[in-house]
Amino acid sequence: MDLALVVLLDGRDIALTEVHLALTYGGLLEGYPMRRLNDMITGGLARRAARVLPGAPVHVINPPRTQEPDPNPDPLPFGPVEYLPSVIVMGRFSSGPIDDGKDPVLHRSHLVIVWLQDDVAMPSPDGAPAGLSIVDWERWAEDFEV
């Protein structure tokens, strides 16, 4: 049984077999979301995912950023407020082998994909988060023997 099934634009089915969720700004005790903080968060996502879900290559989907106009006449000390989506999702996906020469009974392919979204919804064939359905599986995933 899989947690979710996503159909990529190229027609490949990828199955979500493990998922880890975290708040994007969990642990932020003071300050505010800004470009420099968001760069640090996004820059560490691949390493974090490799620790949380080891054993597969990692691909990070570049998240959208939202800037808020500053109504104050004095500029903020670290630049304007900039938000990332509120939930970091790290998912381990598997699919059939990439190499057509490999036996699909004995081989699978796998990839950990990281994306950010605004809620705690699971992906589905009809409602995959932005960027997930266009992942270039053949480029980022790798085959393994079952």
- Total number of beta strands: 8
How much of the polypeptide forms β-strand, as a percent range?
A: 25-35%
- Total number of distinct structural domains: 1
Q: Total helix count?
A: 3
Q: What's the rounded overall pLDDT mean?
A: 92
End-to-end gap: 16 Å
The SS-based structural class is alpha+beta
Low-confidence stretches: none
Indicate the overall shape. Answer: elongated
Order of helices and strands: EEHHEEEEEHE
- Rg (C-alpha, Å): 18 Å
Main sheet attributes: strand count, strand direction, barrel closure: 6 strands, mixed
Helix proportion:
10-25%
Describe the structure.
This protein is an alpha+beta fold and 146 residues long. It has one domain. It contains three helices and eight strands; from the N terminus they run ββααβββββαβ. The protein has helices at residues 35-43, 45-52, 137-140, and strands at residues 4-7, 13-23, 58-60, 66-67, 82-83, 87-95, 107-117, 142-145. The strands form two sheets. Strands 1, 2, 3, 6, 7 and 8 form a six-stranded mixed β-sheet that branches. Strands 4-5 form a two-stranded antiparallel sheet. It is elongated. 23% of the residues are buried.
Element layout with pairings:
Layout (H helix, E strand, L loop, with lengths): L3 E4 L5 E11 L11 H9 L1 H8 L5 E3 L5 E2 L14 E2 L3 E9 L11 E11 L19 H4 L1 E4 L1
Parallel strand pairs: 3-7
Antiparallel strand pairs: 1-2, 2-6, 4-5, 6-7, 7-8
